[in-house]
Amino acid sequence: MDTSDERVLLEGERFNVHQMELTGSDGNVYRREVIRHPGAVVLLPLVDSDTVVLIKNHRPTVAETLLELPAGTREPGESPEQTAARELIEETGYRAGCLQEMHEFYSAPGICDELMHLYMATDLTAGQPEREAVEQIENRLADRDEIHELIATGAIRDAKTLVGLYAFLFADRLNG
After folding, report:
1. What's the rounded Cα separation, in Å, for the pair 145 and 139?
2. Measured between alpha carbons, how far is 127 from 114 in angstroms, rounded to an integer?
3. Helix/strand/coil (H, E, C) string of the chain?
4. Whole-structure pTM over 0.85, yes or no?
């Protein structure tokens, strides 16, 4: 995407904020701020066909600990698959024998161009996580029945996690 006509308002470590100009149907010019993001991955790590590795992840942004699927931002020059392998190890300690891309989706297209790639990770080998110093993460295994319950009770409120878990729960219907 060509962003050369946009004004950069903020250059951050993980994303930038730009201001774009849009011409409305009334002929007026409107300014909108947009987050330009390098993209990210979300992982659906399967210990077995019924058990998913979730993480309890403290999110200072919302001052809550959320139950999530592991995920992370792409580094410069890194393919989505490389990011998926790296983030799985960093956040959970697991290594995947197989990574399969399931879907890609925009996380919040009204304000951000972040494209997320959902990967299913199988043939897992447990190991030590390599978490960043500021990450407060704890692994948590959940089976299919528990995932239904966690979603139904509102215990999972993270959008990327809901996308990944719905893909997990309804994969048979989607593929068959």
Report:
1. 18
2. 30
3. CCCCCCEEEEECCCCEEEEEEEECCCCCEEEEEEEECCCEEEEEEEEECCEEEEEEEEECCCCEEEEECCEEECCCCCCHHHHHHHHHHHHHCCEEEEEEEEEEEECCCCCECCEEEEEEEEEEECCCCCCCCCCCEEEEEEEHHHHHHHHHCCCCCCHHHHHHHHHHHCHHHHHC
4. yes
Q: Label residue 173 by pLDDT band (50, 70, 90).
A: low
Q: Which tokens is 84 given?
A: 């998926």
- Name the residue with tokens 């580094």: 75
- Compute CA distances 144 → 48, 129, 141, 148, 169, whole Å: 11, 24, 10, 6, 7
